[in-house]
Design brief:
single chain; globular; 2 helices; three-stranded parallel beta sheet; alpha/beta; 33% helix
Length: 79
């Protein structure tokens, strides 16, 4: 079975989080959603909220964790 992969790069914040939200809403619930976090370098609280939205949507669709390649040296998420 295939998957919809959404690659995140750079910053996930106030300016970019709405784009992730729209991408997650457009994905088919018939396919697993995978968020590729390998190039994500910063995430603010709104970005965290969108990641949780994606996580909850995948759980509701019956798929597993949507994360792929989280960067261990990321700048992290700010409060």
């Amino acid at each position: 079975m295939g998957a919809t992969v959404v690659a995140l790069a750079g910053e996930l914040d106030y300016h970019t989080a709405p784009r992730l939200h729209r991408a997650v809403e457009r994905t088919s619930e018939a396919l697993p959603l995978v968020l590729d976090l390998a190039l994500l370098r910063f995430c603010d609280s709104l970005g965290v909220a969108e990641l949780l939205f994606a996580f909850r949507r995948t759980r509701a669709a019956g798929t597993r964790s949507p994360w792929s390649a989280p960067a261990p040296t990321s700048g992290g998420c700010s409060p």
